[in-house]
Amino acid sequence: MLISSLYHTQGIIGYNYQKTERTKDTEIYYLHSKARSLACPRCRSWNTSIVETGKTRDIRGLSIGLKKTTMRVATRRIKCGDCSVSSHEPISFCPEPRVSYTKAVAHFIRVLRAKMSIKDVAELSGLHWETVKNIEKNWLRKKYKTVKLKDVRYMGIDEVYLGKKLGYITIVRDLISGSVLFVGKGKGGDALKKFRNRLKRKSKQIKAVAMDMANSYSAWVAEVLPEADIIYDHFHLIKLMNDRMNNLRRSTMNKLEEAQKKELKGKRFLLLCNEEDLDHDAHGELENLRNEFADLGTASLMKECLRNIYKMAMDSTLARKAFELWCEKALASGIYCLKQTAKMITNRMEGILGYWRHGSLTNASQEGFNNKVGWLTRQAYGYRDEEYLHLKIYDLPHLSARKDL
Ligand SMILES: [Zn+2]
Questions:
Q1: Residue 391 CA to ligand 1 centre (angstroms)
Q2: Which residue did the predictor score with more confidence, 271 or 323?
Q3: What is the pLDDT of residues 375-386, one digit of tens each?
């Protein structure tokens, strides 16, 4: 084996090659450091002496086909004349001090991870599952060590439920670039404590913050970003309306006889679907449903009306009029879920109109993003390593398909 081949294929530099030993499935390359003098890793002093230990360390290299490779490195110690600390000579082709794989292996694992699950990468590379995960984790840690806030103007804050064990997390995103700015444990202002100081320095540049109607962040925004507007996300408003309508469908269903119950049970889809997405037959079915169940029919029409405001109103003045009209009708209908929604719209009117005031700012990618968080949390590993899970969330905007996770 030529040292130049070791350099070009395995990224080995600064070492002399001595010999190769072969076992059934492994090529073992014996290497010896070339360095004649070394700085003390602790105090950086060059007043050091180098001592051979007579021992070796095995570092995993890239496989050649099905054959594994091992770099068997003669280890040395650096004795410092200044701080009198004796330390191991660092191995320059390893990405971290204590790991037993080369930088080239770490790079290859990251390339594979973009295409395969951790399990598949571990199987293919012969590395331990945990090692594959840690290689990716170390890389993500470096990549997202400092997330830049310099160009952020519009932010979205969202809470996501990760199940019983992990509870809630709060995710802050840049609404323009889509990148994740912060991931905090828990929900409400407390979850954003660590983000607060970093953000305060940029508080003047943030124009608006989008959030859901649950309102648990509006007090935080008012305090930390007094100049920013709050925008209630239109996606959340429609979702809330859909949820309430679904409750109405359920309670309507529970009052019915068995035969009618069955009829309504399968129709959830029709009621929640956007009307323009339905084909001719489905449209007819929806009409029948609306005639048969009056309250539910009214609620379903009102939901479509609400969606149309977002589609049709050109500015905040028109939108305000449309919402006021909607609320009037909703209150007059006497239907509980519509009355509830009307009250909420009236109370949050300014935040809802923020959508128009800030150039139809929409968190359109939010739904897709939340779906991706869903993929992630359904993976079992997310529940074992919280830091890794958070790092993967920072990386989500760069992933396009589920297999990447
Ligand atoms: Zn020293």
A1: 35
A2: 323
A3: 777 765 555 788
